[in-house]
Amino acid sequence: MSVLENAVLNSDIIVIGADHKEFKEINPEEIASKMRNKKIYDTKNIIDKDKWEKAGFKVIKIGDYSDYDWQKKYGINY
User: pLDDT digits over 28-50, tens only?
Assistant: First the structure.
């Protein structure tokens, strides 16, 4: 098992907090089966949203208001 697979094993969410090249190159299909809940929170807008969603992930990106449902759930209105 790779270091990345160990890091996400049974996790609920991945949080991208830096725009390092390595984070851009993560293959979501390789790690999806290792996670308990497939969610990713991208604070740097560096991942390919479509690619991650196709792998079954719920993608939340700062500055991306295409999905307001999660904000409404927590009482945040834009």
Answer: 999 999 999 999 999 998 999 99
* Beta-bridge partner residues of 40: 14, 59
Q: Beginning with the edge strand found earlier in the chain, give each strand of the sheet holding 39-42 in spatial order.
A: 14-16, 39-42, 58-61
- Can you tell me the distance from the alpha carbon of 30 to that of 55, in angstroms, rounded to the nearest whole number? 9
Structure tokens belonging to residue 10:
């049974």
What's the one-letter identity of residue 60?
I
Model pTM score: 0.78
Strands, E assignment, the chain: 14-16, 39-42, 58-61
Contact between 54 and 38 under an 8 Å Cβ cutoff? The reply is no
- Return phi, psi of residue 21, to 5°: -55, -40
